[in-house]
Structure formats: structure tokens, C-alpha cells
Amino acid sequence: MSHVNLGMIEEAAAFIQSKGGVKPEVGLILGSGLGVLADLLVDTLSIPYSDIPHFPVSTVEGHEGELLLGKIQGRPVVMMKGRFHMYEGYGPEVTAFPVRVMKQLGVKSLLVTNAAGGIDTSFEPGDLMLITDHLNMTGRNPLIGPNDPALGVRFPDMSEAYSRRLRKLALETAENHGVMLKQGIYAGLLGPTYETPAEIVMLRTLGAHAVGMSTVSEVIVARHAGLEVLGISCISNMAAGILDQPLSHEEVMETAEKVRDQFLKLVMAVIPAM
Ligand code: HPA
Questions:
Q1: Of 34, 79, 246, 265, which residue is least crowded by CB atoms under 10 Å?
Q2: In the annotation, is 5 catalytic?
């Protein structure tokens, strides 16, 4: 699948709606090791990605592929447990296809989460970082190709990619619940290699505070679709070259596990107010 059109989006959404389940208002994309939120859903309907028309199938370990509909604190949500990455070989418009389907289902705001390497040396593994903005370092864009005005404008504004209103809400919620929430700019790269130490120095020079291999194409499509976006990174490791140790996916998953309770506390409180 390379080109995405409205018909494909409608077909996927109609299939999901035909299964029953809630009419979602908030969309959630759960990053590596952060799938635990799915256990807190009520009235859950689970649909494997492989059943949904035009959905690709996620291949990476630690990313189960299912779309979940249900309620969190009474709020109807649609949740992606497992996402699609460009390093799996998918084009950016494919990785972001589910966001367009969420919009078609009636979603108004999107919470994107990810595991990321800490570039800011004041960060520590286990920190949660509110994404204030991003650097799209993938060299790709999901909106390349003919623009369908039914989906959004040709030249979308990205000056508030991560909603000011939702950032304020997240910071206040974190404060009220005693959750430490740092803030910073997320650099999205293609992967699948982790970065070299020189690349991390470059990214720091460019203003990035954290680095990962997801999120940017989803957020671009969300903004194109007029969705309000909230982004939270779990700093799972210090980026390459900061500590004298190699990076591993195991470390990323282990840290996500450790920060789980704080993460859940924050998102459970934020979602009803989104
Ligand atoms: N780099 C890129 N992606 C990541 C990292 C990292 O250090 N940690 C988790 N995802």
C-alpha cells in the first residue's frame, strides 16, 4: 500500500464501527512498553489489526497489534496497542493511516506516547517528557502526493503541532497528581539503528531533548486532520554517547515497565479532560 485515499479510510472505519463498541472521542497511541494502559479499559472491544481493511500488520517485538475501543474514566477512546514504524518498511502515510481512521471514527484529540532516548543531560531514564514540539528528521512526510481537501489543507500549519491547551492540561494534571513531567522537543528519526554519539551531538545542537523512531508522521497527519495532539515520551535510556554503555531494546522495555505507574497515573487523569 502506498497511496492512501478517503475510500480506504472509510472502509476501515466502517469495519470497526460494524463491530459495535463505543464511539471514541479520544485517540491513544501507545509506545514501546506502554501498552499496559490497555488493561485499564472498560467495555473493551479488541480488533486485531490484521482484520481491519487496509491496516498494515506491526512486526516489532513488544508491539502487539490490536485496536481497542473502550472507556477510560468514562471517556470513550480508541487505542492503538502497537504502532507502525517507517523502519519496518512502511511509508509515512501507512504508519499514520490509523490516525486518519480515528478521525473518521469521530476522534477530536490524540494522545501519542513513545519511548525515547534522552538527549538533554538533565534527563534520567524513567523521566516522562511532555513533547512541546518536534523535529521531523526522517526526511519523509506522510502528506506527500496529491492532497484530498476532504482530509485537510495542502499546506498545514505546524506552529502548534502539540496543542497549547493540552500541554497546559498535562502540566497541571501532573502537578496535581504528584507526577514529575519534564518538557522538551522530540526528534523523530527513521531508525532502526540507534543514533551514533555524533548524531546525538548534532540533534542536541539542533535543539532536541529526546530522540525516537516514531510519532512525527502520526502527528503530521493528526494536524492535517484537525486533531488536537498531546505527546508524552517515556525517557527509556540516555541517548548514545552520553553514558559509557551500549543501547538495547531490552533497556527500553525495562525502563518503560519501571515508569508504568507514573505514566498510568498521569494519562488516566488527563484523558477525561482532553
Ligand atoms: N534512540 C532512538 N529511539 C529510541 C531510543 C533512542 O535512544 N530509545 C527509545 N527509542
A1: 246
A2: no
